[in-house]
Please model this.
Amino acid sequence: MKDPIDADTDTGAPAPLDALARRLGALPPSLGPVRLVAVDGHAGSGKTTFAGRLAEALGGAPVLHLDDLATHEELFGWTGRLSEQVLGPLGRGEAARYGAYDWVRRRFAEVKEAAPEPVVLVEGVGAGRRALRPYLSCLLWMELPQGDSWARGRRRDGPGLAGFWDGWMRAERAHFAADPSRPHAELLVFSRDQGYEVLPGPAGPR
Model:
């Protein structure tokens, strides 16, 4: 990214996501023919919603959700599956076909596909991890503090998943302590009342 992408609060102005989509599409490919873009942040920070809206601005870009690759036993142990089922095929210009984990039945119950489009989004906690960064064109970080993110996530999921959240918070703390993503983010994404604001991140432009 050569220039920061500033938000414009005028409702009649072009949407920041449209500007971001243009910038991402102009980046050089990072994985075969694909520009792989990661959306990382704490659980509950709004990654999935943002990635969906960015995908729309990109004209329907594929979105890979890391929740599909994680499991109850391996919350962050999905690197091998990602490499074999996603990074390898996309790097060869082929469609990625990967198993999607069913969090209710606790098994991989569906096969999903991601085409090698010009931009492919990968979203989830740890999307900017060390093992994945060499394949990224850009790393975006959802800028919402850990405590606020987790409070949002708990409200969203309800009391029935309180036990899961207790275990998740311990795992997320340990993951980011060992392998932080935010220091490597080129861009920070702020959720505002009227949309999103995208500003330069700690890593600056590539």
Q: What stands out?
A: DSSP finds five helices and eight strands in the chain.
